[in-house]
Structures are given as structure tokens and as C-alpha cells.
Amino acid sequence: MKTFYIKLNKFIISTKCRKIVNFLITYSILPFIIIYPITLLYLFLTHSPLLFDTFFKPAFLFLAITISRYLINRERPYERYKIRPVKKHKKGKSFPSRHSASALIIALIMLDINVTLGHILIICALIVGLSRILGGLHYISDVAAGFLFSIILYIF
Fold first, then answer.
1. CB count, 10 Å around CB of 113?
2. Which terminus of the chain, N or C, has less C-beta within 10 A?
């Protein structure tokens, strides 16, 4: 894996891909920041029974992942392999990816509210996860674990 991250980082840092990856790291989460609160407000105003799951599943996941990241405190790829991250980020607490998990659980819950929007947000969640890997902020396993936790929580 070390070779993979070093070569990937060299390619991204030395090409125009750096600007694209930096943009994606910064803004790919934006649809969730905009759509999620609007959806919560809509569900509240319409007294929808979906409000409970729409609020508490992402909140529970966020809390559980935050605690697990604190306990595990895994180094990030740019720390372990001494590569230059595409975007500055705090050290440690890499596993699992909170951005990826949060994005996917919101996208999955959105499937119950609006299927089209849910599918669009699933694509956005995949972009969030990919950007975190390409930027050297997370390992593939960090993103995969975040996605897995989201899927499990969504099912139950």
C-alpha cells in the first residue's frame, strides 16, 4: 500500500489533478450540508414519521464514529508515508472516515424520502470518499469502513 499512496500522491501533486482533488475535498460534502437540514425542516413541518430516522441515524453514526476514531487514533496516509497532503488536515483519527460515513448515511436515508435525490447523493457520497483517498487524508479501508457502518445502520 505504501507504494500505491506514494505514487498516487506524486501524480496528483505534480499535475492539475491537485486542484481538482482539492476542490472535491472542499466542496463534495456541500450538497449534504445544504440538502440535509432542508430535508429535516421539511419532514418536521409535514410531521413526517421519517423525521426520527432521518435525524437520529446520522447523529448516532456521527457520534459512534467520532468515539471510535478517538479510541483507534490511526495515522493518516500522509503521516505514515511522509507524503504531502493535497489539503492540510489534522493528524490522526483516520479510521473510519467520518465524512464518507456521514455522506452515505444521509444519501441512503434520502432514498426513503426521494429516490432520485437519494441516488444523486449516493454518487456524491462516493465522490466524497474517493476525494478523501486521492487527497491522502484516508486509507481505502477508512472510507470502506465508513461506508460499511452507514449501510449497516441504514439496514437496521
1. 14
2. C
Distance CA 11, CA 98 (A): 26
> Is the pLDDT assigned to residue 88 strictly greater than 80?
no
Backbone Cα Rg of the chain: 16
* CB-neighbour burial class of residue 122 (10 A; exposed 0-12, middle 13-18, buried 19+): middle
pTM for the model stands at 0.91
pLDDT, position 29:
96
At residue 123 the predicted structure's pLDDT band, cuts being 50, 70 and 90, is very high
| The pLDDT value given to residue 7 | 85
* Dist. CA 103–CA 125, nearest whole Å: 5
Residues in the chain: 156
Contact residues for 123 (Cβ-Cβ < 8 A; gap 6+): none
Q: Which residues contact 129 (CB under 8 A, 6 or more apart)?
A: 97, 99, 100, 103, 104, 138, 143, 146, 147
Helical H segments across 46-113, by residue range: 51-72, 77-80, 98-113
* Alpha-carbon 48 to chain mean position: 27
